[in-house]
Amino acid sequence: MLGGVSRGVQDAVVSALSSLFSHGPTPLENTLDYRGDSGLLGPDSVSWRVIGDAAVFVGGIRALVIQAAHPEVVAGVEDHSAYRHDPLGRLSRTSVYVTETTYGAMPEVEAAVQVVRQAHRPVHGTSERNLPYSASRPEMAAWVHNVLTDSFLAAYQAYGPEPLSPADADRFVAEQSRIGALLDAKPLPQAADELSAWILDHPDRQPTKGQTNAIEFLRSPPLSPPIKIGYRLLFDAALATVPNDLLSQLGLEAPRSAATIGRRSTTALRWALGASPAWQVALVRCDAPIPKGVFRQPLPVHPR
Question: In this predicted model, what pLDDT tens digit does every residue of 178-199 receive, in sequence order?
Answer without folding.
Answer: 999 999 999 999 999 999 999 9
